[in-house]
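pasting for the record
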Amino acid sequence: MKVLWVFLSACLLWSQDTVWAEVQLRGDYVEVAFFWRGAASEIPLGANFVLVGEAALLQWDSISIAERGRWDGAFSSTYLPLYLTQRGEEGGNHRVSLNLLSQLPPAGEAFQGSGRESVGRWRVPIRSFGDTLRLRWGMETGEIVLAPLQPAKHRFVFSAIPPIYLCPSIGRVPVRYQSGFLIAEGLEFFRLENLSITWYRDGVVIGNGFSVEPLLPGRYWAVIRHVCGSEGSTDSVEWRASSQTFSFYGGWKVYPQPTQGDVWIQAPVEGAVQVVLRDILGRVVHEKTYVAQANTAEHLRLPATLAAGIYQLSLTHENTTVIFPLVYGQ
């Protein structure tokens, strides 16, 4: 009987109308995504998703909606656009509400009835790194109205919101070559003033910032540190500029150079190799992946529409990328 009671309790909890708020860090921002679940017979006409947190930790005046679910005016003509309201509260707290409201006369879209569905997501910059953010549901949360204009707060369970430490991780960052520069990618949600990016060539410091110009052959990478103490690095890139009849570096070989037709790639490794050909603006004009056999040449057939010029040929195996300039003439 006890096992049966636990099973029935779990089923009842899963079938219960529920509201979630999931908090995550995206670079130097906090994002809060809202989800809910309801029966297929229920049509939401309005709802407030209210959270309260410490005012000093986030830049509340820069909050914005980052994603909108299907109960938004952009996806359903029966609803107004989702909107935010906020205000300061006593005790150094701040209150923000994501609001959903139907058009007049009231009409709407029913729940799917299985699984949770996205309501929307807002994003706000972090003001104080290294602190712990604790958000809680506000008392107004769940002023949910279902058709036909029935208050339904009592029908919903509100999930607990775990605290989050305000220090974003960096991890491994990819590198892109464009217009003569190596560029650290995937940092668009970080602000430069919060990062220290140091570039190295063969272990020697050569510059700082999001990009560096590879003027000499060698192995390039960057170490990235955040003001909160987290640290990461870019992929390493082997750079070799050559005007010989072939390009050779670290056992990799590309020939002929220059070419008026196809080229051959000889790898010193075994396994999957990603080949990406870019023009001088960094646009991908050709790509393929092949399984290399050590010291065995692979035929790379270039597009027939390729225009004469200088290109960048990237060869990636596991976490290492080798970049060759490729001179193509018709």
